[in-house]
Amino acid sequence: MKDGVYEEILLDSAIKSIGIAGHHISSFEYFVDTNLQKIIDSESIIEPVIKPYGVEDFKIKLGKITVGKPDILEADSIVRPIMPMEARIRDLTYDAPMMLGVSYIADKKVVAEEEVFIGRLPVMVKSKYCNLYGLSDEELLKAKEDPKDPGGYFIISGTERIIITTEDLAPNNILISRENQEGVSYSAKIFADADSIKVPHTIQLSDSNLLYLTFGKLKKISLVVMLKALGFTNENQLIKEISKGDDDIENTISINMTAFDVNTEKEALELIGKSLHSVHAKDTAEKNIDSLLLPFLGRDQDSRKTKGEYLIYVTSMLLKYAMEKREVDKDHYSNKRLHSENYNLDMLFRFIFRRVLNDAKYNFERGIKKDRVPPPKYIFTSDQLTAKIRSSMATGQWVGGRVGITQHLDRRSFPSTISHLRKVESLLTSNRENFRARDLHGTHFGRFCAIETPEGQKIGLTKNLAILSEISPDGLDSDKVIEKLKKIGAKII
To answer: For the chain: N or C, fewer Cβ within 10 A?
Structure first.
């Protein structure tokens, strides 16, 4: 064979197996297959304040959600499948109906059960929920579609829109850095993320070697006090576990023990509660600790020991880095994560669906006031969910004030389309310097194109995935990973 033929065969094979837009498609499919149901399960019980006459305990239970295939309701009331090309030509949205199982449970007995239409979800072209899925090249041509089109985008009111892959710091990760602010020398930051709960944590080491913890509404609480509130009241044992035999670290912890003289768990909890200006200091402190402190480790009283052990580990790491005058390289790509459709649609759907549930509760209670029990299909309004998803997808305006999440797909040429589908944008604001974040990092090689980035404000913040790079699929079995880590010597802290 001539030079380059082997490379061409390998490249062609790799592109066919991975797919140019494979990361978009797999992320969308994971959202529909798995995360959509998780959102429903997290909000599965509605308890109306006003109950039907003669019923003591009444609940509205949400069951399984299903997503159909894209279709259209014509003027003559006929529902039929729709292809992407027709949606483009007729300025329609390529979306599918969502059906949700709803049950009425009165005094622990199911009194009504129905599958309810709750709205329409835009469907990604070439995903398994698309009407083009599984078609041969001949069948795609017959449907007036390009067999070489990679998919990975949505059609909203006839316009092709993509959800841009965004780059952010990895959640639940420890980032230690030298601080420039007055009175603080080093800090450890943890962006705690547990489903819909996102709480930034900061442990600061002051110039006078005092350690403070900040999270939620708790500002600069002594780390020693927090550890004692979590049940670690044996000071000698605490010093030993944090210092690990290092005399300098041992002296630092001893200074903190002396500066914040709290002996019991109850005293520590009351001190934390008083900092929140609560009348019921102990109860308030316990609620904040259980629900907001490192929520990815648990959100109940049983998780306090694990949270304490984790804080001991982070403190030991922070002090060691401070003594050695080191920092964690947050621009190393092991400290970054890429968010595609699953992350962004999860955030959007979760926010809108809560409003839908509030409306459903209100509609049910209004019916009860009129001495009638409204059927499930009458309490859910599908217009709100459909309209708000379409609006966000069409404008790119997302939950939390974020903008530019979706963009109009670049169709100037085929390479332009490929480039756009593989674009990655940083969440850092482009009008700030952020020199280090813009630099080409050694860990980019093999993952990103080392050349392609725009001129101007977005230079270095907008990147493109290398043709052969892949994004780890959502929903990997973490238990299997943990078992493999144990086999190579990793220990649970």
So the answer is: N
Q: What share of the chain has pLDDT > 90, as a percent?
A: 54
Q: Is 16 exposed, middle or buried (0-12, 13-18, 19+ CB in 10 A)?
A: exposed
Has residue 28 got a pLDDT over 60?
yes
How many residues are recorded in the chain?
A: 493
Pairing of strands 184-194, 174-178: antiparallel
Fold of 15-159+340-408: Rna Polymerase Beta Subunit; Chain: C,domain 2 (3.90.1100)
In the chain, CATH 3.90.1100.10 covers 15-159+340-408
- pLDDT recorded at residue 7: 66
Locate CATH 3.90.1110.10 in the chain: 174-324
Torsion angles phi and psi, residue 464, rounded to 5: -130, 135
SS3 151: coil
**Angle between helical axes of 235-243 and 304-324 (0-180°, round to 10):** 50
Range 174-324 classified under CATH 3.40.1190.10: no
What CA–CA distances, in Å, run from 442 to 305, 419, 435, 472? 39, 22, 15, 20
Q: How far is CA 396 from the centre of its chain?
A: 17
pLDDT higher than threshold 80 for residue 12? no
pLDDT for the residue numbered 277: 84
Contact 65, 99 (CB under 8 A): yes
Q: Is residue 342 very low, low, confident or very high in pLDDT (cuts 50, 70, 90)? A: very high
List, in order, residues 6 or more apart from 358 with CB less than 8 Å away.
none
Bridge partner residues of 114 (DSSP): 102
Please state, in angstroms and rounded to a whole number, the distance separating the CA atoms of residues 249 and 245.
Answer: 8
- φ and ψ at residue 220, rounded to 5 degrees: 50, 55
Half-sphere exposure of 205 (CA within 13 A, CB side): 24
One-letter amino acid for residue 326 of the chain = R
Residue with tokens 């230079």: 459
pTM attached to this predicted model:
0.86
Give 229's contacts (C-beta < 8 A, 6+ positions apart).
265, 268, 269, 272, 285, 289
The amino acid sitting at 486 is: K
Give the residue carrying structure tokens 């004030």: 401
Q: What is the pLDDT of residue 214?
A: 93
Of 306, 141, 155, 165, the C-alpha closest to 227 is 306
Asked if 290 contacts 304 with a C-beta cutoff of 8 angstroms, the reply is: yes
493: pLDDT confidence band, cut at 50, 70 and 90?
low
Whether 115 and 97 have beta carbons less than 8 Å apart is answered as no
